[in-house]
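$ run holo --ligand "NAP" --emit tokens
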Amino acid sequence: MRTVTFPGGETVPALGQGTWNIGDSRATRAAEIATLRRGIDLGLTLIDTAEMYGDGRSEQLVAAAITGRRDEVFIVSKVLPNHASRRGTVTACERSLKHLNSDRIDLYLLHWHGGVPFAETLEALMALKRAGKIRYYGVSNLDLTETKAWCQESGGEATATNQLLYNLSRRGIEWDLLPWLRERGIPVMAYSPLEQTRLFKNAKFAALAKASGVTPAQLALAWLLAKDDLTVIPKCSSPARVEENAAARDIQLSPAQLAELDKIFPPPRSARPLEML
Ligand code: NAP
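-- output --
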């Protein structure tokens, strides 16, 4: 199985599971829990959530899905920027721990940059780590300037990841942010890897998937997984889809297929503002 090692030495599976918009409806709850559990069976044990998702309902659904299996999974959650003060970060983390029914969050991220000085958030994250409530910390949606500023603060050097919008149609980070993180051994966590299915509407992309004998979701995931230092967190709501997505780990794209994807979705030719969803 493809794995990625964070600074600090923790090795996690390259393919995990997202949970945005999960846990909001009683009608879909059982399928969502079954999906996460099937994903864990298949080795997709990195599960990404956030206090923002459904105002805690996503974290609560994750708790239900991992009942009896806490030690099998690596849980990522996030603090909202407006909670990211010294005291607010600790309060938010404790609330997330209750929702998750867990004594620890494996990786805790600042969801995006708000008004709170980075030094203050980092102070709280370091205190949470010392207390054993989180094991690692990192950021999400920070552009290159912000990432540099974050990493320069005390504690910033221990940043485990920057979770970023990255998929075939959103390649802007390849220009500068991705290389900068790579040089420092900080793996990117690629969110919305399927562009929330909008990728599938590209006729040339759909045709390439068909000609390659894979599904569009598998082609999009295989392209990301071909880069050996990314974690990738697609979200889905059925066990059949999680099986389909897990099979992307076994797809090796040829140089010709990769070149064709570059033609359909060209890499950036200049710096672009960071995109986020
Ligand atoms: P995504 O994973 O790119 O796409 C999710 C959509 O793809 C869902 O509609 C899902 O449908 C569909 N899908 C999944 N597998 C499929 C398959 N094999 N065939 C066809 N459709 C398939 O989008 P995302 O949820 O925005 O991103 C993934 C995760 O990244 C989130 O859940 C969240 O954990 C994280 N995220 C983080 C941020 C941030 O700011 N840090 C922002 C966005 C997302 P069904 O659900 O109906 O199966």
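-- notes --
The CA atoms of residues 112 and 141 lie 5 Å apart.
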